[in-house]
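Hey L., structure's done. Input below.
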Amino acid sequence: MPRSLPLAVALVAGAAFFLAVQPGIAAEAVVKAPAPALTEPVSGHRETAIFAGGCFWGVQGVFAHVKGVVDTTSGYTGGRASTAQYEDVETGTTGHAESVKVVFDPAQVNYADLLRIYFSVITDPTQLNRQGPDSGPQYRSALFPQSSAQEKVARAYIAQLSAAHVYGRSIVTTIEKAPGFFPAESYHQDFMARNPGYPYIVINDRPKVEALKRIFPMSWKA
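Output:
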């Protein structure tokens, strides 16, 4: 993601050409992960989950199209409130990860289902402190469980994926405590939906949404 949004159009347009001829650093590969063996007990209340998996534009863009998800917010998780600003987070020194808070109806979609989508089309869990063209700890693959039940399911699913050798390399996705979630600036919210033709979105994020629709049609919502 471009570090300076006032210059983003020029910077990302140039990056779009570069990435188009450098497929090795473009969008992450899609892997259809197996169904989780352990799922969270279903409650009658809405739940919140927090995911970090690279630039939050794409993470939010995918989860917004998942049936049962009722709200998504891009933000920062892992650091202090005083450093939860885009320019600070982009230095990679704040402890924050670009993240997305997902509010969902567990009667329609289980936390385990969200994890399956996350590991299939959103993040490459084998990339350490980077995703695609974005590098730094702020782009790490990380889960921030909001309950002991979510943490149990997350740890079990990572263990299941590792045992099944779903990926060619070791999973480095972390499970972390969330000291707080801090919403990102307004211009980051629903960025993909508002800017579908933006070069970065076209190259890195639109393929993820298309993969969601193709691989998990029963979970897709327009």
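The chain has a mean pLDDT of 90. The CA atoms of residues 66 and 220 lie 5 Å apart.

-- N.
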